[in-house]
Amino acid sequence: MPGRGSVTRSVRIEKDADERLRLLADQGDTSVNTLVNRALRKFVEWDAYGEKFGFITLPAVILVKLMDCLTDEEAAALGEWAGKNLLKEYITFWFTEVTPETLLEGFPRLLSKYGRAFAYEELVEDDRRVIILKHGGGPRWSTFYETTIRTAFRDLLQRDVRVEKSDNQVVVRFRLFGRKG
After folding, report:
1. Considering the entire predicted model, what is its pTM?
2. Coil, helix or strand for 121?
3. Are 70 and 78 in contact (CB under 8 A)?
4. What's the pLDDT score for residue 120?
5. Which of 158-162's residues contact partners 24+ apart within 8 Å by CB, and which partners?
6. CA-based angle 145:67:143, to the nearest 5?
7. Strand runs (DSSP E) across 23-168, as ranges?
């Protein structure tokens, strides 16, 4: 992924896009090169696949309101469906196969980084991995994420995970892959 060296490539950029890039770079106290690399990385890791997979962009408040229209049971059922079906299709589309590594890379890392569905943190404690999803969607989104994760690990990876949730956070704990017990 990032940090595997670089190459020099000359490209033509439309003048108005270049002016906007320079302005954004100045405002963000960074370089045009850094902004261009971020944009290209997002395109190759997310946008190129997301468009083909059918992703759309919506304000987060709409998704929060839609989830609020569901009962807890409906949010859990949606999460179970997503964990069994959607994640399998999504991971296979992006990475060609579902493995522990591709599941973790595609969901939650890429979804956090580019989909901005939640903040993602990953910790390693001895032989366990801890994943924290911090979101602002409320308890039904926590139920959805909890059920999605539990179902994906169980049905796609044949692994059990311990999941704790609060109104705006989900914590997932499991043994590192490749270790038994």
Report:
1. 0.81
2. strand
3. yes
4. 94
5. 159/100
6. 30
7. 119-125, 128-134, 162-166
